[in-house]
Specification:
The chain is of the alpha/beta class. Strands 3-2-1-6-7-9-8 form a 7-stranded mixed beta sheet, sandwiched between helices.
């Protein structure tokens, strides 16, 4: 069994959709566990979150909408989905006045807020309880540095078990130098070939996340071109392992 850890309700489809489809075609059981899939807390969201809602053409129902998109995406690639209760970072609050912890684009790619150190431990404990011992676990490399991607990686690395890592699309499309650094520091990649049918399923799985396309590409044609070029460049999808 393969379990992919996804920060948000689209990251595995974006980064590994073709590979998940190939695995499920071989009758491998695949489950996508989305860690930051919880509902926003009560009360108003930040102006930054409101701006994102407008881009996604969704209001406070954005998380519900994105879960529906994820279920459709999972159906395309044959995976099951599981949703944890931590909200997306754009909704998380804390400190004096219970203020938003990540209220700007720059904050999304800054350091994890110090108040969230316990959250890493809580997620690690939940994963440790729930993950089957025999499962192959795949987590994000956190290419690009998004705080939720870092959060998931940190929690996974607390488990003390072997991990596979995936490169985070779309960030890796413009930050390939981070993968070059991995190769120089003792990491090894395994290439998993993706067939034409697998690439088509990958595109369809991403397309199911309709609210998110405009966050990364001007249109579906641009997305398909980018994913196709990335797949061709790598000979499929690469998963990474640390060898130190």
């Amino acid at each position: 069994m393969w379990i992919y850890l996804s920060p948000h309700l689209d990251d595995v489809a974006l980064s590994c959709g073709g590979l998940v489809w190939e695995q499920t075609q071989r009758v491998d059981a695949v489950s996508i566990w989305t860690l930051c899939a919880g509902e926003p807390p009560d009360g108003a969201v930040s102006p930054f979150a409101e701006d994102l809602h407008r881009r996604w053409e969704a209001g406070r129902e954005a998380t519900t909408l994105r879960r529906q998109e994820d279920l459709a995406s999972c159906e395309v690639i044959g995976a099951t989905g599981r949703y944890f209760t931590v909200p997306d970072c754009i909704y998380r609050r804390g400190g004096t006045g219970n203020v938003p912890l990540y209220a700007s684009e720059s904050a999304l790619f800054g350091p994890l807020h110090p108040l969230e150190a316990p959250l890493v431990e809580e997620l690690a404990a939940e994963l440790s309880r729930e993950l089957p011992g025999e499962a192959e676990v795949v987590c994000p490399l956190a290419v690009g540095g998004h705080v939720d991607h870092r959060l998931v990686r940190l929690a996974a690395e607390c488990l003390g078990r072997p991990l596979w890592y995936y490169a985070d699309v779309p960030y890796v499309l413009t930050q390939r130098d981070e993968l070059a650094k991995l190769s120089r520091t003792g990491w090894r990649a395994q290439v998993f070939p993706i067939s034409a049918d697998g690439l088509a399923a990958w595109d369809k799985a991403i397309t199911a996340h309709a609210s998110q396309i405009s966050s990364f590409w001007p249109d579906l044609h641009s997305m398909r071109a980018a994913i196709g070029a990335y797949c061709l460049e790598n000979g499929g999808i690469r998963l990474w392992r640390a060898t130190y």
